[in-house]
Amino acid sequence: MANSRPPAGLTGLALLNNSQYNKSTAFTEDERERFKLRGLLPAAVSSQRLQTELIMENLRRKAYDIERYILLMALQQRNERLFYRVLLEYIEEIMPLVYTPTVGQACREFAHIFRQPRGFYITPTDRGDIFDILDNWPERDVRMIVVTDGERILGLGDLGANGMGIPIGKLALYTAFAGIPPAQCLPVMLDVGTDNQMLREDPLYLGTRQPRLRGADYLALVDEFVAAVQLRYPRALIQFEDFLTPNAYTLLNRYRNKALCFNDDIQGTAAVALAGVFAACRTTGKAFETLKILFLGAGSAATGIGDLVQFALVAAGLTPDQARKRLWFADVDGLLVAGREGLAPHNRPYAHDASPAGVIEAIERIKPQVLIGATGSPGAFGERIIRTMASINERPVIFALSNPTERAECSAEQAYRWSEGRALFASGSPFAPVLMNGKTLKPGQGNNAYIFPGIGLGALACQATRISDEMFLKAAEVLADSVADDDLRQGSLYPPLSQLREVSLKIAAAVAEVAYRQGLAKAADRDIRIETIRAMMYDPVY
Ligand SMILES: O=C([O-])CC(=O)C(=O)O
Ligand SMILES: [Mg+2]
Predict the structure, then answer these.
(1) Boundaries of each Malic enzyme NAD-binding domain copy (predicted)?
(2) Which among 91, 171, 432, 492 could disulfide-bond with 487, CB atoms 3.0 to 4.6 Å apart, if both were Cys?
(3) Which CATH architecture has domain 102-259?
């Protein structure tokens, strides 16, 4: 879908200041005449190609990634199509700047690098008015909403209203990889306060300067938000992002059967991890249903993966009980076993009858083929843990999923070094290839960016009414099947980022198919071929 001509009457400086239609120096002679731009631009007529190179030249001149982030956000504010063109053409270089890891730093410093508002902010004082104030948003056809309350931003903790960088970054990926038009995307910050004292004391902090709203008042605010969205934007999909675990589960369970929504950290991360496990089976030759998996971390990402793996094991023929018994969880205090005090509800199904054990002892006892970290705790995979995994597995599968890079459980280099290059390693944030014994090993990026754009696109394409577990399982299968044998040989369990748009399309078509099969699709036209969906996608070319 090419972005069309400016609406009648949008001319002159107003056109140059409109990020959706601005082409800046690339307006042709003819357009300059028609749109009253003569005199407002230097004489040379540029092209989007040349402008792309200009952006890259300026970007590479900067000394810090945070400066590059600021440059790219400014570009997004003034020339949307150029921003997305740059992102798509230089994806390996740009994605780590607008997404993890740099977006993590951008959130930390959000108030200090603030230039212009973007997205929609809701505070406790808006109680009772949310439907009305949503009318202030200029777009009438919002389809994709990413909302956070900032309490668990990546592995960085409570960043309050600074967390707005995350919905903005996720939606940029929705447009780039799923072709959701920017005008249909809405980033939302539920600014219910922060318990991060340092932020509240920062004079530049831009959020509500009060302790977090909790309990019934919190739920009432989120209820009102979801209801207001359903009324204002009945076709919109709500993606919950970076909520702290208890709220993440509470909200998912509260709305999943009432609204078109999902939680990316629970369900998106689960599907990307499951896809990595499927792909690893292709390398190791082990049957998926014979695997045992140990999770380090007992938050929403870890148990989200556990729940989807269990679902997949049952789909592969195991009973729920047999499936659960293959999955073990540990945290800093060791194995989560039955009878341990203070177990959260989402952990209980996986707290098996066993004696307590530290992580190393647990690995020796359980002999898992797969170790998955979602702890937010850097260095959680120390040398002994990796070596123990490597001593019991020819090809140990090691996922260090915490973000950003500085929070990863171990680095790619460590996983390879401590396993003599045998580990099948993936991480949530990018790591550079590693040279080991003359062979280049390319770690894959096991990030939910491989999943959520396709889920969203598929759901919107068929006007899904709900997002189901089957959709995530299917997405994981499609993603695993998209990994080329060559990539597997180099150690990557995921396709290269450059294939994200194609992968998202394949996932979207598969998700729409599942939706029809499950009676969860409203669109009358059942023509869900990839080409039909491709034709709906936003194309940032002028
Ligand atoms: O944003 C990312 O890179 C992945 C993610 O959802 C998280 O770490 O919370
Ligand atoms: Mg997240």
Answers:
(1) 266-516
(2) 492
(3) 3-Layer(aba) Sandwich (3.40)
